[in-house]
Amino acid sequence: MDDEGGDSVSVWRVGGSARVAGFAIPAVVGATALFRWAGWVASPGAETARPAGLWTGLAVGVGLFFWWAILRVRLEVGPDGIVAVNPWGTDRLGLDEVASVRLGSWGAEFYHADGFKTTAYALSELAAGTSQDRRFAELQAVLEAGPDTSSQ
User: Fold this and answer.
1) Where does residue 48 rank: exposed (0-12), middle (13-18), buried (19+ CB within 10 A)?
2) Helix pair angle (16-42, 46-66), 10° resolution
3) Where are the strands (E) in the chain, listed by range?
4) CA–CA dist 68, 23 (Å, integer)
5) Would you say the C-alpha torsion 62, 66, 68, 69 has a positive or negative sign?
6) Per-residue pLDDT of the chain (152 residues; tens, 9 = 90+)
7) Distance CA 57, CA 49 (A)
């Protein structure tokens, strides 16, 4: 149990320059839209409203894309199991379902006893742009420690 009374859960998210880009690029596009609307306020008309509207739509699209592909992606490991939130969906695994784990190009790969595998994109070298060896070692340490049974 942690200080707040719940079970402890380890969480990993996409890190490095990809996470910075996930915040910075939508912010820059959003600021551009804001400046376009300020231009429309200073000089109302269709010729200033059209680019402002286009930049607003672009800002919403870029923001949603980066949230979907980078900022929402995470890997959670806790006593209830593993939750891998990827861009295309969420996978939930029990700790007893995982036969082995390895680090692949697309993230941590959890191999099931039946031959299937689940990939956690949050530990992807391609997403973060850097080696994920240190973070993968943290994941392995948490998995080897197993669920915290001292408080039950």
Assistant:
1) middle
2) 160
3) 10-13, 74-78, 81-86, 89-93, 98-104, 107-112, 117-120
4) 12
5) positive
6) 344 545 688 898 888 888 889 999 999 999 999 999 999 999 999 999 999 999 999 999 999 999 999 899 999 999 889 999 999 999 999 988 999 999 888 889 999 989 899 999 988 766 556 677 888 888 988 888 875 543 33
7) 12
CB atoms within 10 A of CB 94: 9
Prediction pTM value:
0.77
* Paired residues of 118 in beta bridges: 110
Cα dist. 54→35, 106, 144 in Å? 12, 34, 51
Residue for token pair 């959003």:
30
Q: What's the token pair of residue 96? A: 């007893």
Compute the Cα dihedral for 32, 37, 41, 43 and give only its sign.
positive
Task: Judge residue 139's burial from the number of C-beta atoms within 10 Å of its C-beta, 0-12 exposed, 13-18 middle, 19 or more buried.
Answer: buried
Task: Give the integer Cα–Cα distance in Å for 117 and 13.
Answer: 20
Of the candidates 77, 34, 51, 135, the one whose C-alpha atom is nearest the C-alpha of residue 85 is 77
